[in-house]
Records
---
Amino acid sequence: MDIDQIAITILKLRRELTACLSLHCNSNLIKIHFILLNPGMKSAEQDWGPSDQAAQQSYFLKEEFHYLDVTQIRKFTIFDMFHCPLACLRNNLCLSLNVASSRGTEGKFWCELLSSDKNRNAENYHKNTSSHHFSILRSPCSSSPCQNGGTCIPNFNSNTFDCLCKESFLGELCEKAVKSCKEVYEVNKSNVSKLVSLHLGSQPTTVLCHMGDFGCGDGGWTPVMKINGNKSTFHYDSGYWSNKIEYNTAGGETGFDSQETKLPTYWDTSFSKICLGMKIGGQIRFTVINMKASSFYSLIADEKYRNTSLGRDTWKKLIGSEASLQRYCNTEGFNVICGGSDFSKARIGTATNNQDNCLSCDSRIGFGTGGQYDPYNTCGNEATREPDNGDKHIKAMGYILVY
């Protein structure tokens, strides 16, 4: 704000305040909002311009033709009533003020700044035709209670406040850093997907929070990984599954596209549901695993097999009508290895066999896959040796989110 704008603001506030001080407004609650200028700047009125660098707001309760007879901090005369409440605001000891109800012989008003108020000195408070009394109501926001850049909204009637938090913070005082999209959804109940900064470590990570039901049910879904089946980045044997190293975090901001990513949410976000999606030829299909865990890392990094119970038909739905699997074994879950390391395996998925055992699986559907016959198909469907819908080599773009 430049000096001309400041001058206009001051004059506007002066007119509004003077009208109320002179009994020409209906309300007895007067709001004073004034600008504290940057050091070195000069106000349109040199004698009132404060030296601090901020903005302040206070309310005065106007009581016409009353006087509080207590020790004064200061008494002075002014041509403009505007100066009296501003002088009180600038003095930390000032709790109320008396001001003349009319101008004196020199055309001035007298003003008294007081270090007490009528509640503390009720016996000294009385009617007086020559003055008005103003009690300053300190804003409940004056102590800046809202943390992390939150905006304090005062309620002067109840002397309380509410904090309007920035997107990445929650809590009564905006004291809680958001760590998942679920937290944002449960506060706002909005189905509009949006970018949110999650506090998962020393630096915030911005992700696209998928809100509402896009195929996995209502909620705020936090992205964890995106895997391109044509690339070896997240092959079953990749170290990314067992470490806490992120990969292309910018990919977490772009939705269901072809950018691969591994986000800090892999090791630092707890959940009760997992949303799995595969995109093939522009068509995305989803399924949900109901499972509680402290993180995705806790389910996979230790290399231990953990079973799920979706069933082969549910895994095939991720692929669509072209899906194919062998008929036997049907092992599924996390860290699935069916036979030796050369056979079908998946970090999340299912592996099947043409024999009634799990010793030499040749088919799979999953994420972070490997093994014969195409070890470079890392997300999608591989099926050979008598599968139920013919041999398949389908590579997909995979999406993993949690709630």
---
Amino acid sequence: MAGLQTTVSSDVKKSNENGNGLILYQNYQSYFCLKVVFALHEKKLKFKSQIIDLYRGEQYEQWFLKINPKCEVPVLKDGVKIIPDSRRIIDYIEDNFSNGNVPRLIPDKGSPEYQHVMRMRDLLDNVPIKLVTYGCIFHPRISGVMKLTPQEIKIRQGMFIAHENLLTDLSEKNEEYKDQYLVKRSNLKKLSCLVMDMSEVSKAILDVDYALEEVEKILITHDGDKKKWWLCCDKFTIADISLCVLLTRLQMIGLADKFFNKEKKYPHLQEYFKRAQQRDSYKKTMNQGETILRSFSSLDTKEQVFVAVGSVAIIAIAAGIATFLIHRNK
């Protein structure tokens, strides 16, 4: 199990000391973890990261099942409270850490801004990002140039079979958690079938296109006094976090070539993203594993070590590097 890593915004104020006890179980390349980390940095809250090695299946270990039976990250621990799911976590920190100088990410309920933010948040959060991500990895011809090395792509391509086998082994050896393992394996198989179906992947990409088109329509209206507005209002909100993490993922899997081409299909969105990438919170979120990644940079990528564990082939060095995220490419 990976050790705790303290992650502290450099401009944390004393008024935010109530965030000291936050522990985030996360993985640097998890799309949903990035949303939570982004929100924590926007709110300038101190937190510690417990890195979960998703590619080696650490999320299926019994100690983690006791924290989250769904075997998923992120999970936030605040004292004795355990909050799973990125959306629930962000709502929790918004409700409990928005006093004094801590900025809010969601406008007051009942306000026009609140309705606007929540509508866009729902639209962006409902994009089938797992299907889009793995669809591009398994069908590279539908995307552009990925910001992933060939080794990293192979790791992801091998994940479905490796994890299905791992979950089968675990369900047979651990009666207490058998149901959780079998449910997880069933969900993984369903996703795998969708990923292999080019028509389903194409539909998912159309969903992305629709969401970005709606965003562009809003940004077009931001002229005059609204020129420096973010997506929904003059404040940076949870809708902006959802949008920025989505755009970063599209860059990683090569779809930026499709949506941000020479014809500038979404010119206002492109300008918006350039501005958003300059935010301190964005930089800290996307570069959070930089020190760890550099420690692996001198490894010879030819030295890929495969260790058989039961019926599962676990990638040792290669998976280790991938686990600490190609965040600088995101």
---
Amino acid sequence: MSDNVKITVNDNGPYRVKGDVELVDAEGNAFETKKMISLCRCGHSSNKPFCDGSHRQIGFESEPRAE
């Protein structure tokens, strides 16, 4: 099994995280995660830090590219 974790910045959407990761809050409490999670970038999710698709309703736009 690979230890690699891949984070993809989706155009106009969430960060997609694939792999075994531990996601903790500011107090060190762990969120329950799966092998693939989507993290909110728009700030409007009602299930933060996870994406709930709210970016579609608010018209969130962001398409960053690596240089």
